[in-house]
Amino acid sequence: MTRQRAAVLSVVSRKGCHYTAEEIFTEAKLILPTISRATVYNSLHALERDRLIRRITAEDSSDRYDSSYIPHGHLYCTRCAKITDFELPSFTEHLCAVADGEIDSYELKVRYICKECKKMVETPKM
Amino acid sequence: MTRQRAAVLSVVSRKGCHYTAEEIFTEAKLILPTISRATVYNSLHALERDRLIRRITAEDSSDRYDSSYIPHGHLYCTRCAKITDFELPSFTEHLCAVADGEIDSYELKVRYICKECKKMVETPKM
DNA sequence: TCATTTTTTAGAATCAGTCTAAAAATATTA
DNA sequence: TAATATTTTTAGACTGATTCTAAAAAATGA
């Protein structure tokens, strides 16, 4: 665990955040001004390999990172792009039976329209 | 629904396949030799917008497409990269409560090592 | 038909992510 | 500690998936 990796981990670990690699790079530079983009990518891969963070994919272009590798769900608002974590009922056993193999981890992706966006879309006068 | 979109849809609809855009382009050219890459991307976006196909993201670089928009699970083997569909127990109601918003669709991504790969990895003599 | 709109095409452009090779840091061994 | 080996970092070039652009073609509709 180098200083660079620690910096990257500290950024990703911020509560409730799901940053892109570019955002992590920007934030990490505030901690270690000389850190390079390649090191951010290297660190993200190493941290993911070591199960300290998890890569997730939103519907847009770039990958994002989550501070927890523990299986959980993500709500993706299709209007404002906000990502929210939520706890999953544990169905590891059920999945093991379905998968007929060794489960590493899982994630439930839910596309939805969040409460705020739904409110905005509602047009009571029409 | 143009000829091009129909061709793209027919390729994506092949049973059990989870093609990349490039693979879809290759296959679509066998049906309509003059079809262009941009049209394949346009068509994929239009078909996804109209809920006829679903975009999924494996762990590797490029997006893939699934012939069904109906919520279901995907098993991603981390060794051989094979993707397998599986049915999900319906928890739409539970999700609606959790999400506090309007659910569009959902997908359960499971990272695992499939039976065949696990067999290969096992080294009984050690 | 004529005008309007949508779609397609080919190729250029973009952008996220990877690769490279040299420099720096770290670990190892004598 | 000095010498050596290994790992990591850095900057920038490179790659490859996807998007953009502008002109041509096709579809729509008055």
Write the layout of secondary structure elements.
The structure is a homodimer of 126-residue chains.
Chain A: H1 3-12, H2 21-31, H3 37-49, E1 54-57, E2 63-66, E3 72-77, E4 83-86, H4 92-99, E5 102-114, H5 115-121
Chain A binds a DNA duplex (30 and 30 nucleotides) through residues 2, 4-5, 20-22, 34-39, 41-42, 61-63.
CATH class of the largest domain in chain A reads: Mainly Alpha
Instruction: Tell me the major beta sheet of chain A.
Output: 3 strands, mixed
From the N-terminal CA to the C-terminal CA of chain A, the straight-line distance is: 59 Å
Low-confidence stretches of chain A: none
Rg of chain A, rounded, reads 17 Å
Approximately what portion of the residues of chain A adopt beta-strand conformation?
15-25%
Give the CATH architecture of the largest domain in chain A: Orthogonal Bundle
The total count of strands of chain A amounts to 5
Helix content of chain A: 25-40%
Largest interface: A-B, 32 and 32 residues
Q: Oligomeric form of this entry? A: homodimer
Structural class of chain A: alpha+beta
Per CATH, the superfamily of the largest domain in chain A is: Winged helix-like DNA-binding domain superfamily/Winged helix DNA-binding domain
Shape of chain A: flat
Strand numbers in spatial order across the main sheet of chain A: 4-3-5
Number of domains of chain A: 2
Number of helices of chain A: 5
Overall pLDDT level of chain A: 89
CATH topology of the largest domain in chain A, by name, is Arc Repressor Mutant, subunit A
